Amino acid sequence: MRSRTSANGLTLSCWSLRTLIQQAYDVFASGKPDMLNPGTPTMAIEGLPDWANRALYSIDAKTGAPQAAAMMGAR
Question: What is the model's pTM?
């Protein structure tokens, strides 16, 4: 699992669907990233099929214009 962020975009490589969902809810549920608190418990996800842990996805998102801070991990 790799990630790269910049003011122009976000690249995620080899992330499972489960991890993508957990990051969306655990990290950004409050509308702000909480990556500075690694001890925060991970949200339980129920009912996902087995492939949601095995299948890996890559995302390459680009912004229309540079942002003031990196897309992921900035407060």
Answer: 0.62
